[in-house]
Amino acid sequence: MIRNLAQGIRVFTSNAFLVEGETTALVDAGANFDIVSAVSDVTDHLDAVYLTHTHPDHVGNVDALREAFDVQTWGYDAGNLAVDNRIEDGERIQIGDDVYEAIHTPGHKDDHLCFFSRGSGVCFAGDLVFANGGFGRTDLPEGDREVLIQSIDRLREVAGDEVTEIHTGHGPSIVTRPQDDLELASQAARVNR
User: Which residues constitute the signal peptide according to the record (predicted)?
Assistant: First the structure.
């Protein structure tokens, strides 16, 4: 089961998805709310924290999680203090009961990753794409619209028709025809660039 622990939180944070199973993991740590209590309400242990990228709204709660659960973090940029272990592009990781492929998708931030499971069809897309054709900002440091477009297209190629749901870094998850939202994001990112 995938739970967004940041749902209903009214502060500046990313979504933070808790996935229970063989490897109980959190995808993104969120920021500015009591993530420890939110995790503890569901489980008493956490095996891993996977980071889609290291913007403050996605990693602000990392230290609290490390202290409370003696857990390590994984992300693309091992030089960032929020990342304990590097994940390579194409590397396979366990989230819950499924194996996910890490897909390096820069454009919003250089260290951005998406995680996609062919077995379940689930994708954690961070801030690459959002519901209704939204896409990540490119006006922040390391943002690049052309690179973002390439990353959206890469995710479309990798996930193809196999993707059944997309859990985004902000806003609602996409659980109905996510291919349509990916196509819309690809088109929208090409407008006024």
Answer: none
| In the chain, alpha helices (H) | 35-40, 56-59, 62-69, 145-159, 178-190
Phi/psi of residue 98, nearest 5 degrees: -120, 155
* Residue 46, domain CATH: 3.60.15.10
The CA distance from 160 to 101, in Å, is 14
Note down the domain range covering 23: 1-189
Distance between CA atoms of residues 100 and 33, nearest Å: 27
pLDDT single digits (tens) 25-66: 999 999 999 999 999 999 999 999 999 999 999 999 999 999
Residue 187 in tokens: 């088109």
How many domains are contained in the chain?
1
Partners of 93 in the β-ladder: 100
**In angstroms, how far is CA 123 from the centroid of its own chain?**
8
Q: Are 48 and 29 in contact (CB under 8 A)?
A: no
- Say if CB 42 and CB 79 are below 8 A apart: no
Q: Evaluate whether 115 touches 103 at the Cβ level (below 8 Å).
A: yes
In this prediction the pTM is 0.97
Q: Are 107 and 138 in contact (CB under 8 A)?
A: yes
Give the tokens for residue 2: 């995938």
